[in-house]
């Protein structure tokens, strides 16, 4: 049975599939509630796929605001009413009187928080603002971050917890890139976006450091399409905005949005 489930997912996802299956099984069979860490869209997809086969379970998803990308899941027996349950999400504000804070990026804030030894799963979406940022964090580590986070990329900062209604969100900025490529292959487009040679882009892809729509992708020849989100560990991520016909020389026109 478990082998049949594994067939639908990448081998690297098996540990998570096992954990998610256990959460669902315990909720259905033993009436146990489980509040997860923040899950990325791929993990949410797996959880919802597995739970769709279990009619004795209900799930609530919440990332702190409606359009959130990363969400916590509360898994419970199907008779449970979850709307009023505390999802354990806090809004952490990071600010500074140093004008350099306006130059900080998403990766700077994330790196500073993870540098405290905190797991990625305890951190939800990060909203980078002109005067700092708002971070959705798991309630169980919010006090720890408040106590220890004093600097982000050489900028001295201070922190405070805000009421959930004070959360400010900002649409992700995308740096536009217009490419002409020989094909829509992952390695070809990624090498142009990250300005690496075709041979050098193969290393992170084959090492499992590339994700397409949050799923590990090790096949360099995978074809991309409009809407795909690609992330490469250490290089950032980009989105295929549009494939816009072909040039007279038979190359594909592709519009890319690179997350900044």
From TrEMBL:
InterPro entries, per database record: Nucleotide-bd_a/b_plait_sf (IPR012677), RqcP2_RBD (IPR040591), S4_RNA-bd (IPR002942), S4_RNA-bd_sf (IPR036986)
All copies of domain RNA-binding S4, residue ranges: 184-241
Keywords: RNA-binding
One function term, GO molecular function aspect: RNA binding
The keyword RNA-binding is assigned to this record: yes
Ribonucleoprotein among keywords: no
Protein name (database record): RNA-binding protein
Species this chain originates from: Paenibacillus kribbensis
């Amino acid at each position: 049975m478990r082998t049949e489930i594994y067939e639908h997912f990448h081998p690297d996802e098996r540990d998570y599939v096992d954990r998610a299956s256990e959460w669902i099984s315990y909720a259905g069979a033993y009436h146990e509630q489980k509040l997860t860490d923040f899950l990325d869209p791929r993990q949410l997809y797996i959880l919802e796929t597995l739970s769709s086969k279990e009619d004795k379970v209900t799930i609530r998803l919440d990332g702190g605001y409606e359009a959130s990308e990363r969400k916590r899941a509360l898994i419970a027996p199907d008779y449970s009413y979850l709307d009023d349950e505390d999802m354990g999400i806090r809004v952490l504000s990071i600010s500074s009187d140093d004008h350099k804070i306006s130059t900080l990026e998403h990766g700077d804030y994330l790196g500073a928080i993870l540098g405290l030894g905190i797991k990625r799963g305890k951190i939800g979406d990060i909203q980078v603002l002109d005067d700092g940022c708002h971070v959705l964090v798991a309630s169980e580590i919010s006090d720890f971050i408040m106590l220890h986070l004093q600097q982000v990329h050489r900028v001295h900062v201070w922190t405070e917890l805000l009421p959930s209604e004070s959360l400010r969100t900002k649409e992700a900025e995308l740096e536009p890139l217009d490419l002409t490529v020989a094909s829509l292959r992952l390695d070809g487009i990624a090498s142009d976006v990250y300005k690496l040679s075709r041979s050098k882009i193969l290393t992170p892809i084959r090492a499992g450091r590339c994700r397409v729509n949050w799923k590990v992708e090790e096949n360099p020849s995978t074809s991309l399409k409009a809407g795909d989100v690609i992330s490469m560990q250490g290089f950032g991520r980009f989105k295929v905005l549009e494939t816009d016909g072909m040039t007279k020389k038979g190359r594909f026109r592709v519009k890319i949005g690179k997350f900044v």
